[in-house]
Amino acid sequence: MGDAYPVEVAPTSSCDWPLLGTLTTNLRLGPGDVLADVGCGTGGVGLWLARALAVRLVGVDISPVAVRLAATRAATFVPQGQAQFHTGTLTATGLSDRHVNAVICVDALSRADDRQGALRELYRILRPGGRAVITRATRHGARGPLTVHEEAAGFAVERVDVRAAEPHMWGRLYGLWLSRENELRRELGNREAERMLAEARRQLPRLPDRTARVITLQRPADGRPASAGTLPETAVYREESG
C-alpha cells in the first residue's frame, strides 16, 4: 500500500487511508453512538474509528486469538470501557436486536458460510435509520442487480463506492508473497506460509476480473422487518470470495 498503509491501525484486511476516510464519511455517527465491527480481526479499524468519532465500539470475531489481541490493543486508542470485544460469527454476533447505530464489515462478508444470513444479522442488530458499510469484491459480468442480496435482507442501498486501486494492491502483495517464499517459511512456519502462498496462487489469476466496492446500506427508519425482501429465484450473482 505504500504510504496509504495506516501503520497504527495495522489492518490485516485491505483497509488503507482512503477506506478509513470513506468509513468516517459514510457512517455519519455522532459522539456516544455505538459502532459494531463485525469480523474485526485484531481490532485496528474499529478502534481507529472509535477514537476518531468518539463512539463506543463492540468488536466481534470468530477467532478467540484475534479477540484477545484486539482487547489488548484497545488501551492505545481509547479510554477503558469505550471498546469491548467478544467471539461470535457473521450470522450470530451475540448482540441484541437494534443494539448499534452502525456496523462495519471489512473484507469479511465473503467468508460467511451463509452470506444472506450474515446480511440479515447485520440488519437485525442495527437500529432503524442506522447504517452498515461493507467491503466486497465482485467479478465482472455479474448478472442481476449488484445489491440484490442486501435489498433482500431489508436494506436500502445508500451508495456504492468503487475502489479501483485495490486489485492492483492485492496483486503487488501476492507477488511479494510468492517471490519471498523462503522468508515467509522462516518467519511464519510452513503451515501458515503455505496457507498464504495457496491464497496468492488462487487469487492472482482472478484479480483482472475483480472489482472492489464499498457499499453503504441503511436500515429504513420505518423499522420494517428483515424478511421484507426475498431473493428472486432467477437472480445470478458472482462474488469474489476469500
DSSP summary, beta strand count? 7
The first-to-last residue Cα distance is 19 Å
What is the mean predicted local confidence, pLDDT? 89
Largest sheet, strands/sense/barrel? 7 strands, mixed
Radius of gyration over alpha carbons? Answer: 18 Å
Query: Could you list the spans in which at least 5 consecutive residues all have pLDDT below 50?
Result: 225-242
Order of neighbouring strands in the sheet with most strands: 3-2-1-4-5-7-6
Number of spatially distinct domains: 1
Q: What sequence of helices (H) and strands (E) makes up the elements? A: HEHEHEEHEHEHHHE
CATH topology: Rossmann fold
Helix content: 25-40%
Q: Helical region count?
A: 8
CATH architecture grouping: 3-Layer(aba) Sandwich
CATH class: Alpha Beta
Task: Describe the protein in words.
With about 240 residues, the protein is an alpha/beta fold. The protein has one domain (about 1-165, about 210-220): Vaccinia Virus protein VP39 (Rossmann fold, 3-Layer(aba) Sandwich), CATH 3.40.50.150. About 35% of the residues lie in helices and about 20% in strands. It has eight helices and seven strands. The chain has helices spanning about 15-25, 45-55, 65-75, 115-125, 150, 165-180, 180-190, 190-205, and strands at about 35-40, 55-60, 85, 100-105, 125-140, 155-160, 210-220. A seven-stranded mixed β-sheet has the order 3-2-1-4-5-7-6. Helix 6 (about 165-180) packs across helix 8 and helix 7 runs antiparallel to helix 8. The radius of gyration is 18 Å and the shape is globular.
